Amino acid sequence: MDIVAGVSISRDLRQRLAEARNVFVLTGAGISAESGVPTFRGGGSSLVWKGMPFEIISSAGMLERNLPEVWEWFDYRRNLLQSVEPNAGHLAIASWQDRFQTVSVVTQNIDGLHQKAGSREVIELHGSIWRARCTTCRARYQIWQYEGRECVSCGDPLRPDVVLFGEMLPAGAFEMASEKAVAADVCFVVGTSAIVYPAAGLPEIARSSGAFLVEINPERTPLSDYCDEVLTGKAGELIPALL
Ligand code: BJW
Q: What is the set of active-site residues?
């Protein structure tokens, strides 16, 4: 056992990391918490905006009922994110690219902080707050290039290019993430409550294909008992100390 940031790391994990070629990292809101981005759940509370729980405002039903309100919610969050920087956790994961043959980052986050930290292979399962897409045709826009709310191609309303509750993930994203999970030697699950599907199914795919499964989270989750190793603590403290 080694002690890292006050947490014990097993010989097994050390050995697995020494031999690993393909590392898979599934991240959730918790990895951005130390950058100042609020999580959805955790710490016994749930995110609420204008009196609405996020499960309501970030839902397909709300988009149908009140698109302007959905835009307001994402504009508010995008404004908060303008001044946010990647933290030590994001940066350490990006640095692993120099150490392993492949590092696949699969994130549920829409904040773009992994890319900002330098991770090259990032699969965004729940889209990006920095893009808009047409509600009718296939057009997509980077918001810094086009701030309009109507599609230039067809004139129909735009919406945030994120995956709301009850919506399908971007075409091919889960399939690509599953392929990476199958190939993983070590799978890290970082800062996610692991309750939102299909993302929460990826660690099981990785482990049943032979990966060593490691959870990094200050709290236990429904996945904890299934993991080979649970590192209880903050991502920004534990991840940089792992290698
Ligand atoms: C730290 C930390 C630190 C804090 N360091 N850690 C199977 C069973 C049951 C239900 C379903 C199922 N399959 C599908 C469903 C329905 C639904 C679902 O999963 N519901 C569950 C809640 C039960 N899934 C869907 O609707 C998905 N679509 C789908 O499946 O399509 C097929 C379909 C279509 C139609 C009908 C049925 C099926 C889409 C899910 C989209 C999720 N979207 C959101 C909002 C995105 C936009 C936005 O940002 O507003 O994505 S919801 C929200 O949850 C967001 C997140 O990406 C996602 C996951 O949250 P995450 O990242 O885990 O964050 P938290 O806050 O929950 O946890 C933070 C963690 O960090 C905590 O554990 C802390 O302890 C920890 N932490 N500080 C490390 N410093």
A: 126
